[in-house]
Amino acid sequence: NRGRFESCHTNVKAISDAVNDATSEFSYNMDNITGENTGDILKNDADVVVGAFQIIKGDFIDEYKLPVKVKNKSNERKSFSVKIEAVDASGARIDDDTVYVNDLNAGQEQNLEAFVLVTSDMAGKLKNAQFKIVEISMY
């Protein structure tokens, strides 16, 4: 009976380990989706380059944009959402915006624009703002 007990114990441990591994992987993947793994994603999976805020004077209306380039550094197709905030000299948030990149192949990059739909008053504040990535989600 001892051999049967040890065999049963080994099977229970293997099942327990498999459940723990699956739970850990699920948790890690959920953290990727919710932005909890922002540091890891920026280190291992995505390069994000935020340019300078631009005001393009037009004849009737001005255009505004913050260029953002996202590159997939991973070996698989990925989608990303990148939340960027604009802060003033004291560190207070002025505004935030999110850009979305769908189905980037491994090594592929895409140029996007954030802060496009802002008022002229807000554009004046954004002109001198510092921009930083608050969160990046990967799915």
The gist of it:
This protein has 139 residues and is of the alpha+beta class.
Written overview of the protein:
With 139 residues, the protein is an alpha+beta fold. Helix content is 34%, strand content 40%. The protein is built from three helices and seven strands, in the order ααββββββαβ. The chain has helices at 2-34, 38-44, 120-126, and strands spanning 46-50, 54-56, 63-72, 78-87, 93-104, 109-114, 130-138. Strands 1, 2, 3 and 6 form a four-stranded antiparallel β-sheet that branches. Strands 5-4-7 form a three-stranded antiparallel β-sheet. The longest helix has 33 residues, at 2-34. The radius of gyration is 22 Å and the shape is elongated. The mean pLDDT is 87.
